[in-house]
Amino acid sequence: MDFPNVLLQIEKACADMQVQATRIAGEKIIMSFKQMPGNLEACKYVLVIIKRSLEDYHDGEKHAVITDLQSFVSMGGYSQLIGIGLSNSLVDEFSSTKASNVGLPWDFHKKSKDFFENTYLLPIFELTLRVNDAILGLSLSLAEKSLCWDFSYKNDTLLAGTFAKEGSDIIEEELFITTKTRLHGDIFESEEQIIEYVIIMKQEILELINNLSNNVAERPTSTLEYGPDLLSIAQMTRRLLCTISLPILCKVPEISTFLHEVAQLSATCLRESVVVKDNYGYFIEDSFSTWSLEAFDELLIIWVKLVQCSSHNEIPHHQITSNQGLIAFLGEASYHIAATYIDTRLEIAKYSTNDEEEESNNFKDW
Fold first, then answer.
1. DSSP-derived secondary structure for 90-150
2. Which family does it belong to (predicted)?
3. pLDDT band at 362 (very low <50, low <70, confident <90, very high)
């Protein structure tokens, strides 16, 4: 779409709409833009205009912005895509970091942001949830039908309603779980709901850890393909444990067992990140070690956060006595992980130094 040319056409059409004789022609030009390819890209420019004009709108026009977005989304099809695109751009334009630079003063942006979060933000969030619920409902129904498919070809390992082994990677996809590991705040009505949420999420993460361990054990020669899974599990674990406060974590049943598994996963990631040599003394290029180190970086954030919280007396005094074992474990595990991290870094540095010496034919630059 030629945006400068489109702008000229819009300005001319708007001018025509101010004159009674050319009003109908101007309206037709404006309405024709919805048929143009690439109009979704123009959403952000539309929202710049809306933001700039907010002070000139009366209350009815301000409310009409959300009403129009809801109408777009309810139409379905391409109109729904336009509605979601406009909503996405609307959030960006009123945010602190992604607003377009159009020469407006800071106080205008601040005032607009305050208005947006008090008026538009919640309706847009509700709009998004309704779309997600509709799509997820259809997707879950489709997934259930697929999983219950009565295969024509059956043998001892392939029963009705059971996918072949080739489908295991798809079925074990953890992307959906990843999106649910950062829930927090007023969305939970009580501390009991938070604890129940943590229990469910830690069980899901433990299952993923066990599945990953079993897969790597079965096919140790192809660990590279599990690198993204390892990083995803580490990210989910970090989001969960760094979002929930330590006093609440201490109340979760069997949280010590879960943290023990996380500690083992952290140590494993560090061990896997060490560069190794083959039988001929050459370095083995293994990208899985990179995945392991990235995963450990995520897990290290957890241990730093937990130790800081426990050392800063964030746990109420009445909880300290009943959680002395957990607090001691946090200190011991963090010390062990930090020591292993230092040893691993020294090992990597040693390999790197030896490799540089071999490549320079043992000539050192003193």
1. HHHHHSSSS----S--HHHHHHHHHHHHHHTHHHHHHHHHHHHHHHHHHHHHHHHHHHT--
2. Belongs to the exportin family.
3. very low
d(CA 341, CA 4): 55
Contact 211, 177 (CB under 8 A): no
Is the separation of the CB atoms in 236 and 205 below 8 Å?
A: yes
Question: Structure tokens of 97?
Answer: 């970091």
Question: What letter represents residue 59's amino acid?
Answer: D
Q: Contact at 8 Å (CB) between 52 and 16? A: no
Query: 108-138 burial by CB neighbour count: b if 16+ within 10 A, else e?
Result: ebeebbebbeebbeebbeebeeebeeeeeee
What ranges do the domains of the chain cover?
1-37, 40-171, 174-359
DSSP class of 252: S
CA atoms of 353 and 332, how far apart (whole Å): 32
Q: For Cα atoms 237, 183, 100, give the angle at the middle one, nearest 5 degrees.
A: 105
Give residue-wise pLDDT tens across range 118-173: 888 888 888 888 887 777 777 777 766 776 666 665 554 444 445 555 554 554 45
Q: SS3 for 3?
A: helix
The pTM for the full model equals: 0.47
